[in-house]
Amino acid sequence: MNQLERAYRRSSYEAAGAVARVGRRSPALEAVLARLGGGGGARQGGFLGAWNPLSRRMPPGWNRRMQARLMQVARRLPAAAGWGGTACWQEAHCLFAADPRRLAVLARRFRQAAFVLVRRGQPARLCWVFPRLRR
Questions:
Q1: Alpha-carbon separation of residue 6 from 11, 22, 25, 102, 134 (angstroms)
Q2: DSSP assignment, residue 22?
Q3: Containing domain of residue 114, as a range?
C-alpha cells in the first residue's frame, strides 16, 4: 500500500454529522443516505471533492473555486456537504447520492485520484479513478 492509499484509509469522511471510514460500515451515514434519496432513500452514494487534483496541493482559493464548480456541475444530485481528512490535513467534499459510475465520471472530470463509495449495509470502499496513482 502506498502513501496515498494509506492517507485515504486513515482519513475520516463526514457529511451531515455522520462519519465514514474506508473498510467500516456506518449506520449513521446510511441514515443520511436514506434522507438524501427522497421517498425510498438512496441505496448508495459517495464522498467526492474537487480539491487538490491528482493529490497535488493547490492554493486554497483555487480549491474553493473548483469545489463550487463541482457543486454546480452536480447540482441535480442529492448531496450533503462535508469535510474529510486527518488531524493534520482536511479538505471539503460532498456526499452525493448517486450511482458509482456517475461518481467516477465526476471524479475524472475534476481529476480526483479516488472517491469513497458508500452503500447501505456495506463498509465504505475506496474506488480508484486513476489507478496509476495507487502504485
A1: 9, 10, 18, 25, 10
A2: B
A3: 3-134
In this prediction, residue 129 carries a pLDDT of 93
78-100 pLDDT, tens digit each: 999 999 998 888 999 999 999 99
**Count of structural domains, the chain:** 1
**What is this structure's pTM?**
0.92
Q: Are 42 and 103 in contact (CB under 8 A)?
A: no
Positive or negative: CA dihedral 133, 13, 115, 48: negative
Query: Which grid coordinates belong to 7?
Result: 492517507
Please tell me the distance from the alpha carbon of residue 32 to that of residue 79, in angstroms, as a whole number: 10
What angle do the packed helices 60-73 and 100-109 form, to 10 degrees?
140
What is the DSSP secondary structure assignment for residue 53, as one 8-state letter? G
**CA atoms of 10 and 107, how far apart (whole Å):** 20
